Amino acid sequence: MPVDRLRERLCYDPKTGNLYWRKREGDSSPFNANFAGKIAGSTNKGYRVVRIAETGTCYLAHRIAWAMYYGQWPDHEMDHIDKNGINNRIDNLRRATHRENMCNRSMKGTVPYKGVGYRAERSRFIARITVHGKTRRVGSFTDPVSAARAYDRAALEYHGEYAATNVKLGLLEPEDA
Q1: How many domains would you assign to the chain?
Q2: Residues 64/11, Cβ–Cβ less than 8 Å
Q3: pTM for the whole structure
């Protein structure tokens, strides 16, 4: 859908990240009473999705936000800097390759730190990181905090600004705090 047609139907607030339905001029359907001025879309799998009725197509709200703000559809993947797929403020969106986007993922696993696992048979915490699709061992530690800090250093080295470190996730205090 061309961006100018999007702008006829929606309004984007870059400070809040919200998309709002515009009033349809000359429309006698109940649309204006029910939807005009209200936040567009619904959430689905952690992202806001907007369905444009005339095309029957669902669009990711962050891609609409980018298109409306910059005047053209993104030709790349989008990354939510804070990892919140519903936060579509323009300062929270950035271009990313698929690899960069995968670097900015949250944690998984039983240990409460990203990049850290526990080896019960050795009573050790193992720090690992994925780089270019391959898992690399960072080290073996007696405590999970040391393993998490080692992961963070490796994440910053390999992933740079896209690194989702334990400090950024709020799971650890910065070392110099």
Answers
A1: 2
A2: no
A3: 0.67
